Amino acid sequence: MILLDGKKTSADIKQEIAKSVEEIKKQGRRAPHLAAVLVGIDGASMTYVGAKVKACQLVGFESTLIKLPEDTSEKALLQQIEALNNNPDIDGFIVQLPLPKHIDEQKVIMSIDPNKDVDGFHPVNVGRLTLGLPTFISATPFGIMELLERYEIPTSGKHVVVIGRSHIVGRPMSILLSQKRKAGNATVTIAHSRTKDLKSLTQQADIVIAALGIPEFLTADMVKDNAVIIDVGITRVPDDSKKKGYRITGDVDFKAVSNKASHITPVPGGVGPMTIAMLLKNNLLAYNGIG
Predict the structure, then answer these.
(1) If you average pLDDT over residues 161-190, what whole number do you get?
(2) For residue 102, what are the domain limits?
(3) Does 5 qualify as catalytic in the annotation?
(4) Annotation marks residue 89 as catalytic
(5) Which of 27, 133, 260, 278 has its CA at a distance of 20 to 30 angstroms from the CA of residue 101?
(6) Same domain (yes/no): 77, 168
(7) Taking the complete model, does pTM exceed 0.90, yes or no?
């Protein structure tokens, strides 16, 4: 069994981006600039945005963090987004989700300039992805594709089962893996809460991508020998034996499934670290006018 080490791979990618930034600066050009908008004080969001700021510093990006109070109006947030859209020194930016309930997330996503939408959520970028055109791929699917490519996992002609149909992970993964690309040309099945006899599908799969948010849902009896397992889930599970009172687990029963898999991502340390690295890569693409 080979561990798909997202921590190491993301570090490699950040080093590559840092070298690109060094070359940019040697040419006398300004460094790429990534901005993030955070509304409210959601703990997980604050942690994630903080990690993005640190990653920018590591690779030599300029970064701007805009913190807005929880009661910020939708109109005020849209005005802030418009200012970022029109700022020539900002190459890409994200609005951290989730947003407070009084703000329409879809309206916010629609208001972002597609050429600065480094999250890859704008319908223009989703459409370009569907058509196989150059675009920003949302960070988690982008990271998974990068892992598959860098570990040289064969996908052509393989059967992939994606468990989960979200717009952020499940659907883009199904599109990317079915396209004509290096990690592509696969036959993809999307499974979800209404799928009947899911076990029979996953037992046939050469690659399983679990992205449904249910801890340890995928068990050893659901996968065939030598399958490739990508675990997108991350959940805190109460555990009195741990100092913090919980343990972090994914959607896969790692201990049991790893005994059958040829390759598997750990949680933590698998897909998670890749997301920030690929956000940085998207911002470098935005800086270079690709998107």
Answers:
(1) 97
(2) 29-113
(3) no
(4) no
(5) 278
(6) no
(7) yes
